[in-house]
Amino acid sequence: MATPNATVEIPKTQKAAVLEEFKQPYTIKTDHPVKQPSELAPGECLVKLEYSGVCHSDLHIRDNDWTRPSKLPLVGGHEGIGRVVAIGEHSNTPVKVGDRVGIKWIGKVCGKCEMCWKGHDSSCLVSFTSSHGFRLDGTFQEYAVSYIDYVTPIPEDLDGASATPILCAGLTVYKALKQTNLVVGQWVAISGAGGGLGHLAVQYAVAMGYRVLAIDTGEKKKELVMSLGAEKWVDFMESKDIVEDVKVATGGQGPDAAVIAAGDARPFNQAVMYLGFKGTLVCVGMPSGTAVLNVPINLMIAKSLTILGSSIGNQQDVTEALRMAALGKVKCRHEVRTLGDINSILEDLKDGKVAGRVVIRF
C-alpha cells in the first residue's frame, strides 16, 4: 500500500501558468490551488516538480491550430521531473512518497485494450483523454497530479534539467528512429535537426550507429548538430534544390530513412522525393491545420517506400531512452529559465530562435 502522506507538508496554493484563452499569453498565477492529499483519487499521485520542459506542441496548443482543441482553462506542459509528495488513499502501487519520477504527455492508459497489449500506448483511447498539458493540467506549475501506474522512475544521478526533455522530445524521436528499422551504417535524414526534438534525434541516431544528414537552417543550428555527430548538413533556406542536395550528400541514391521533426508540410513532401529505394519516411512533427502529404503513387510503388506516423512511445521506449541518457550517449542541450518567462519562451519557439531546448526550473 502507499506510504502515508501525513509527514509531507503540502501548500494550499502555488505558482502556475494558466492558459485562459486561445492565442493569448499564459496568465502567471501565484494562488493556483494545489490538490490536497485527501482529494487525490485512488491511483493518483501529487508530484512536486523540479523542472518542466517547454515543447513546440505547447505552442500549437496555445494557438489552437490542431484539429482538436484543448480544455480551457489549462495548465500547460507535459515534460516534468520531480518528487512524489502524496499518493491517493487505497492505491496499490510500488511508487512511494519521495520517489523521483517523470511526468509525460500520456498521463495514463487503460492497460486492457488491444493497443495497450501490443505496446501502442499512444493509440489507446484512454490516452487521448489523459494527456498532460492538453486534456489534463500539466507541468507549468509547482505541483502536478499524475498517475502512479504511468509516471516514470528517474535515476537519482541523472541531471534533471537535461533529462526532462527526454520524457517527450527524446522519447518521441527515439521511438521514431526504432521504426526506421535501419542497420548500422545506413543514412537517416533528420529534418528540424537543430530543434528540441531534432538535436536529440541526431544523438540517438549516432548512438544507434546510423549516419546522419541534418536538415535545418542557420549557422547556430549547424554548429550544434555537427558537434553532436551529424556527418552532413543541408540548409533548407540556402538550398536551391533540397531534394538533389540531400541525394548528393548521402552518396547519390538518397538516405535510407527520413525522420521529420518539423512542424511544416514541406519537408514531409520533400522526403518522399529524396528517399532512396526501400526508404522509410517516419512522420513525427505536427504541422498546423490540415497539412497534406502528397505522394506520387507510381513513385511510392517504384521505390518501395514505407511511410508511417509515429506518436510518442511506450513505457519500455522511455526506459530505453533514459538509459541512453544515463550512459552519456545523449544529452539535451538546454537553457534554464523560470516559469515567469513562459510567454517569451513560446514566442522564441514561434520565431525559430531556440536551438536545443528550454527548461523551466522551479
Please provide a written account of the structure.
The protein has 362 residues and is of the alpha/beta class. It contains twelve helices and 16 strands. It has helices at residues 56-63, 114-117, 125-128, 160-163, 169-178, 196-207, 219-227, 242-249, 265-274, 297-303, 315-326, 342-350; strands at 13-19, 27-33, 44-54, 74-75, 80-87, 100-103, 143-147, 152-153, 187-191, 211-216, 232-235, 257-260, 280-283, 306-309, 334-337, 357-361. The strands form three sheets. Strands 3, 5, 6, 7, 8, 15 and 16 form a seven-stranded mixed β-sheet that branches. A six-stranded parallel β-sheet has the order 11-10-9-12-13-14, with helices on both faces. Strands 2-1-4 form a three-stranded antiparallel β-sheet, with no helix packed on it. Strand 12, helix 9 and strand 13 (280-283) form a beta-alpha-beta unit. Helix 5 crosses helix 6 (196-207) and helix 8 (242-249) crosses helix 9 (265-274). The radius of gyration is 20 Å and the shape is globular. It starts with 12 loop residues before the first strand and ends with a strand. 49% of the residues are buried.
What's the N-to-C terminus distance?
A: 30 Å
Overall structural class, as computed from helix and strand content, comes to alpha/beta
Q: Tell how many strands the DSSP assignment holds.
A: 16
What value does the Rg take, in angstroms? Answer: 20 Å
Q: Tally the helices.
A: 12
Low-confidence stretches: none
Mean pLDDT: 94
Mind describing the biggest β-sheet?
7 strands, mixed
Order of helices and strands: EEEHEEEHHEEHHEHEHEHEHEHEHEHE
Binned strand content: 15-25%
Helix content: 25-40%
How does the overall form come out from the CA principal axes?
A: globular
GO molecular function, one term: zinc ion binding
Enzyme class: oxidoreductase
Keywords: Metal-binding, NAD, Oxidoreductase, Zinc
Protein name: alcohol dehydrogenase
